[in-house]
UniProtKB/TrEMBL annotation:
Organism: Callorhinus ursinus
Cell cycle keyword on record: no
Family matches, as InterPro entries: Carb_sulfotrans_8-10, Sulfotransferase
The enzyme's E.C. designation: 2.8.2.-
Protein name: Carbohydrate sulfotransferase
GO biological process assignments: carbohydrate biosynthetic process; proteoglycan biosynthetic process
Keywords of the record: Carbohydrate metabolism, Glycoprotein, Golgi apparatus, Membrane, Signal-anchor, Transferase, Transmembrane, Transmembrane helix
Molecular function in Gene Ontology: sulfotransferase activity
Membrane topology of the entry: Single-pass type II membrane protein
Length: 312
């Protein structure tokens, strides 16, 4: 048993250092520079949790059902909390390669639909309590985050403006139109496929929505999906430096020489400019209420208040 400077017990894998050891006591100089950046990101999360403890720790204890977003790779001692709309399809593909024991070699050969089949990856909630605690203590835990409103616009565009997403139109679109649109046509109420962004925002800030059921994972806050005030994440990757941060994780896991994060430019990607456009028609009152919903994500992951917001 080796102890690292941070007091985490690390059981060494045969013939190699664990990702946690590589992260906290790097052997290569260029990795140690990156380690400083990630220490700053960790500190930001810790400080935000401490400063907002009433908000961030509403839940005193996590239950196994809170852990269904944490994907486990036992072979490389990794735990990845996936956040929809933050490259989670490609990271699930990578986790399938890492846990597949030779079944896959190229992540991009795995169809996106296959990456989202729950049975293809093991999540932390499937373990016993002692097994969960052991893995939380000795595996490297990481997640990827994105500017909260850019992520929100990305979710809206994907789920409500694409004709093929009929399950979302039926499940959420019909409900949003029924509640938020005066004099909605019977056709709109039946199909739910033409939700406006303003209506989506009104639905998110409506207290009734939050009392009724948890947000869908595509627009749920990162702190509610991954519980960073209860789970100490060793590494916070950012969408803005996605390739760099992802390849750093792969290097720490000892697979960087043969596995890289898939590079391809998505032409439909939601950008900051696009997000600004979408917020043009949102009243300052609604912008302020929406910012309150996502405020902890902004603070925790060091995203400044967007310049286009007209907060009250």
């Amino acid at each position: 048993m080796r102890r690292n400077p941070f007091g985490v017990d690390i059981c060494c894998r045969k013939g190699s250092r664990s990702p946690l050891q590589e992260l906290y006591s790097p052997t290569q100089l260029e990795l140690s520079n990156t380690a400083v950046l990630h220490q700053m990101r960790r500190d930001q999360v810790t400080d935000t949790c401490r400063a907002n403890s009433a908000l961030s720790r509403k839940r005193r204890v996590l239950t196994p059902s809170d852990l269904k977003h944490l994907v486990v790779d036992e072979d490389h001692e990794l735990i990845y909390c996936y956040v929809p709309k933050v490259a989670c399809t490609n990271w699930k593909r990578l986790m399938m390669v890492l846990t597949g024991r030779g079944k896959y070699s190229d992540p991009m050969e795995i169809p996106a639909s296959e990456a989202h089949v729950a049975a293809n990856l093991k999540t932390l909630n499937q373990y016993s309590i002692p097994e969960i605690n052991h893995r939380l203590k000795s595996y490297m835990k990481f997640l990827f985050v994105r500017e909260p409103f850019e992520r929100l616009v990305s979710a809206y565009r994907n789920k409500f403006t694409q004709k093929y997403n009929t399950s979302f139109h039926k499940r959420y679109g019909t409900k949003i139109i029924r509640r938020q649109r005066k004099n909605a046509t019977q056709e709109a109420l039946r199909r739910g496929d033409d939700v406006r962004f303003e209506e989506f925002v009104a639905y998110l800030i409506d207290p009734h929505t939050q009392r009724e059921e948890p947000f869908n994972e595509h627009w749920q806050t990162v702190h509610s999906l991954c519980h960073p005030c209860h789970i100490h994440y060793d590494l916070v990757g950012k969408y803005e430096t996605l390739e760099e941060d992802s390849n750093y994780v792969l290097r720490l896991a000892g697979v960087g020489s043969y596995l890289r994060f898939p590079t391809y430019a998505k032409s439909t990607r939601t950008t900051d400019e696009m997000t600004t456009e979408f917020f043009q028609n949102i009243s300052s009152e609604h912008q302020t209420q929406l910012y309150e919903v996502y405020k902890l994500d902004f603070l925790m992951f060091n995203y400044s208040v967007p310049s286009y917001l007209k907060l009250e």
